[in-house]
Specification:
transmembrane helix
């Protein structure tokens, strides 16, 4: 299992997991809505902590290398 989530993606997932978890504490939610929020929050929490998204892997996506600035290769001139 190769890490396919970059740090900004992981932080956003963790933030949304915390927000959905806080929503679980509010009263007046139906049991179906509570189950949905709990499942979404748990999924985002697991993917955010592990750094691996099965959906990204299935689609062949990765956000891990988006922010890394790779310097261009130096060209060698021969005389």
């Amino acid at each position: 299992m190769r890490c396919n989530l970059g740090m900004p993606d992981r932080l956003i997932r963790l933030l949304f997991a915390l927000m959905l978890g806080a929503e679980l504490l509010l009263e007046g939610q139906s049991p179906d809505m509570l189950a949905l929020l709990a499942a979404l929050s748990a999924g985002l929490l697991v993917t955010g902590l592990s750094g691996f998204s099965p959906l990204y892997a299935l689609l062949g996506l990765s956000t891990r290398d988006l922010l890394r600035n790779k310097p261009p290769k130096a060209r060698r001139f021969s005389a």
